[in-house]
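Please check this:
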Amino acid sequence: MRKPPVWFWVIAAAFLIWNAFGCYLYVVEVTMTDAQYVVMYGEDMAAVRDLYPAWAIAAFATAVWGGLLGAILLLARRGLSATVFGLSLAASVVCFIPNFVSTPLREAGGSTFWVMPLIVVLIGCVQVWFSRRERVNGRLR
């Protein structure tokens, strides 16, 4: 197995931080009260909070905790990280479906509702690509 260069560790650590932050946001999202939700996201978003389906919340959980596991596996130099990142990416796409198909959710999110889903999916694609590339380059077991 080839020894990874320093930039590998920097990128893997950045993935870990990104995914840990996603887990933090998930925990905050599912544990905050309605009053806290209004303060954080505003009245419009609070009014449609209950429209977000349970399956999408489950996909959100799968996406963030799967991403964290993928980052840990990458730091442990395990080839399985590519598969776990792929599952996390798929779950993130699923969790964003209501944002795009539900008119009330989309309207409450405002004109930039699509920005965060785009960033999350792009970073997810980079994580999958990077971990696959590193597996092919012999840096992962």
Q: What stands out?
A: The chain has one domain: 6-136. The chain has seven helices and no strands. Helices lie at 6-31, 34-41, 43-47, 54-75, 80-101, 103-109, 115-136.
